[in-house]
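This entry is listed as follows:

___
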Amino acid sequence: DHRDLHSFPTRRSSDLTDVWVQDLERGTLTQRTFGAEPEQVTWTPDGKRIAYGSRRNGKRAFSLPREGNGEPEPSAFGSFSPDGRFVANVQGNPETGLDLWVQPVSGNKTLQPFLQTKFTEAGPKFSPDGRWIAYGSDETGQSEIFVRPYPGPGKKWQISTESGVHAIWSRNGKELFYRNGQKWMSVAVNLSPEFTAEKPRLLFEGPYALVGSQSYDVSPDGQRFLVLEPVEKQLAPVTHLNVVLNWFEDVKKKVAPAAVQGR
């Protein structure tokens, strides 16, 4: 089942980031791109393709088959609506900064504004029923998670209370997860007939890395979290010492003019 597989950027020997796929059941790890420098890697709703943005040669979007040797194809990337028809993403604007936009996947692919304000919006995520979008905004003076109806207009709800980033919906639409520093929070929500949200509760804490637009993922049953554990570089152990005698005399010989050295 593709939902038990996770795609994520990782490092190669060339120090370029790429998309890899790990099969959690078989324990295999497969590299899917080479030198792509991807961002916002995600599955398409049907699970057959991997979509991502690439920082190489300008910011462009691609997708490629989950398995096999298929070449990357131009695509939209970001948070897909459940029916796969739209993608929510972030675009910069000289006047309003980072805003939320929605793009049709096929047909007329013109970007459609979803939320444009003087504040910074980020990380839009379609709800499992496609009727809501969760996102981050700094309109309160710090990053918090909000929910708005899609396609709108309508009331907004503030989900987090003491800062929040990287919102992810549970697959069943009953929870909304987010990160507050080193705390992972959960908010019980109801999507229908009207949106409601309860008080955030702490799930767990940990010294895990905070990178990019999404630093963790959640399994389909909402019981397992995939997080990034920082790895400290270990210095090689000292196995021997070199002792140089008459070091200053050696330096004087090397820097002295040839005439002084009698050459």
User: Anything to note?
Assistant: Confidence is low (pLDDT under 50) at residues 1-7, 9-13. DSSP finds one helix and 22 strands in the chain. The first strand starts at residue 5 and ends at 11.
